[in-house]
TrEMBL record:
<keyword id="KW-0547">Nucleotide-binding</keyword>
<dbReference type="GO" id="GO:0007165">
    <property type="term" value="P:signal transduction"/>
</dbReference>
<dbReference type="InterPro" id="IPR008271">
    <property type="entry name" value="Ser/Thr_kinase_AS"/>
</dbReference>
<keyword id="KW-0464">Manganese</keyword>
<dbReference type="InterPro" id="IPR004041">
    <property type="entry name" value="NAF_dom"/>
</dbReference>
<keyword id="KW-0067">ATP-binding</keyword>
<feature type="domain" description="Protein kinase">
    <location>
        <begin position="13"/>
        <end position="268"/>
    </location>
</feature>
<dbReference type="Pfam" id="PF00069">
    <property type="entry name" value="Pkinase"/>
</dbReference>
<dbReference type="InterPro" id="IPR017441">
    <property type="entry name" value="Protein_kinase_ATP_BS"/>
</dbReference>
<protein>
    <recommendedName>
        <fullName>non-specific serine/threonine protein kinase</fullName>
        <ecNumber>2.7.11.1</ecNumber>
    </recommendedName>
</protein>
<comment type="similarity">
    <text>Belongs to the protein kinase superfamily. CAMK Ser/Thr protein kinase family. SNF1 subfamily.</text>
</comment>
<keyword id="KW-0418">Kinase</keyword>
<dbReference type="Pfam" id="PF03822">
    <property type="entry name" value="NAF"/>
</dbReference>
<keyword id="KW-0808">Transferase</keyword>
<feature type="binding site">
    <location>
        <position position="42"/>
    </location>
    <ligand>
        <name>ATP</name>
    </ligand>
</feature>
<dbReference type="GO" id="GO:0004674">
    <property type="term" value="F:protein serine/threonine kinase activity"/>
</dbReference>
<keyword id="KW-0723">Serine/threonine-protein kinase</keyword>
Length: 415
């Protein structure tokens, strides 16, 4: 049965108990008022970011990456919403909590560790095939669902293929100290896929041994151990697993085992089956382009993460871009603009450029503006007007006096 939408976030999500709290975000359990489905909502208070460019870029990156990933072992990002002060990630609710909490109670059997490791590698392989490198894989970022299956989360430090420099390597220093690969410490650039494999190896060691392979109270001493590859497998590990670790935690990235090579390894292969292609959803490019705004776009729309400009809409001819929000379907917005243009005299021309976009040209080409409609939520859209050529002063009056009032007029509701 659907829940009451009263006091629900965006009239859509009933927010419940606090699940976790970090330096810049809080995560709450919530329910979709329409379906009753449980979700997790990550709330970022923009005032805590203090216009920190690194943190803002991390948020943009996480949204951009998670919006393109659909795999049964990766936490789904359903949508991103925003107000003037906060950004809301609406995520798949993973009931079982962190893998870290489970392994903290004691090491796993090789069979159970292998199951989780196989699921981790399936997700990481999928990410790599789409040019995404996580760079912060650790048990705290691995969740378990109600079926005991693993889900990779937290892509805030991930890199994309287009972050690679001309030498074919990534150069940003990042990750958690105990899980960082030796080539990152060398500061000469690194292969994102190879460092993810190293971190996966550390995760597997923790699961099967119950402790970290490289550890020292002194951070520099720990880094020296990592750089030299100084670790020992406990005596209870099987010979096949010990040999597997010698390839996973190879300090030379060139000879370190690849994911494809892993799938041929005797220890890894036991009980392994590839994830069926039909269980991997594809985020179609046209779906992403069909004007569903995520917070990446919202952030880009306004300096300093201030969304005030999205709720104004008065056309200022001296500015190149103006926006407003409206509670209407994109197709209906387009129809309303067309109706206004048809009623106008004076040689105004209208050309559709895409499903929810058009160009308006004044008489004798004295101005050309584009008008695009983007979906913000199920109920809200953003209308963006952009000057492309000429003097938009002539268009300002038409927009402010005729088009904007029609767009912002609330749609009639049937009783």
């Amino acid at each position: 049965m659907a829940l009451s939408p009263e006091n629900a976030l965006f009239n859509k999500y009933e927010v419940g108990k606090l699940l976790g709290c970090g330096a810049f975000a809080k995560v709450y359990h919530a329910r979709d008022v329409a379906t009753g489905r449980s979700v997790a909502i990550k709330v970022i208070n923009k005032s805590r970011l203090n216009n920190n460019a690194v943190l803002v870029n991390n948020i943009k990156r996480e949204i951009s990456i998670m919006s393109r990933l659909r795999h049964p072992n990766i936490v789904k990002l359903y949508e991103v919403l925003a107000t003037k002060r906060k950004i809301f990630f609406v995520l798949e609710f993973v009931k079982g909590g962190e893998l870290f909490a489970k392994v903290a109670k004691g090491r796993f059997s090789e069979d159970l560790a292998r199951k989780y490791f196989q699921q981790l590698i399936s997700a990481v392989s999928y990410c790599h095939s789409r040019g995404v490198y996580h760079r912060d894989l650790k048990p705290e970022n691995l969740l378990l669902d109600e079926n005991g299956d693993l889900k990779v989360s937290d892509f805030g430090l991930s890199a994309l293929g287009d972050h690679v420099r001309s030498d074919g390597l990534l150069h940003t220093l990042c990750g958690t100290p105990a899980y960082v690969a030796p080539e990152i410490l060398a500061k000469r650039g690194y292969d994102g896929a190879k460092v993810d494999v190293w971190s996966c190896g550390i995760v597997l060691f923790v699961l099967t041994a119950g402790y970290l392979p490289f550890n020292d109270p002194n951070l520099m001493n720990m880094y020296k151990k990592i750089y030299k590859g100084e670790f020992r497998c406990p005596k209870w590990m099987s010979p096949d697993l010990k040999r597997f670790f010698s390839r996973l935690l190879d300090t030379n990235p060139e000879s370190r085992i690849s994911i494809e090579e892993m799938k041929l390894d005797p220890w890894f292969r036991k009980g392994y089956s590839e994830v069926k292609s039909e269980s991997i959803g594809l985020v179609k490019e046209e779906e992403r382009k069909l004007q569903n705004l995520n917070a990446f776009d919202i952030i880009s729309f306004s300096r300093g993460l201030d969304l005030t400009g999205l709720f104004d809409g008065k056309f200022v001819a001296s500015e190149d871009v103006n926006r407003l929000t409206a509670e209407e379907q994109p197709e209906r917005i387009m129809e309303k603009v067309e109706e206004v243009v048809k009623a106008e005299s004076g040689g105004l021309q209208l050309r559709k450029t895409k499903e929810c976009g058009m160009e308006l040209e004044g008489q004798n080409g004295d101005f050309v503006v584009s008008l695009d409609v983007y979906r913000l939520t199920d109920r809200l859209v953003v209308v963006e007007v952009k000057r492309k050529a000429g003097d938009a002063t002539a268009f300002a009056g038409l927009w402010n006096d005729k088009i904007r009032p029609v767009i912002q007029r609330r749609p009639e509701t049937s009783n």
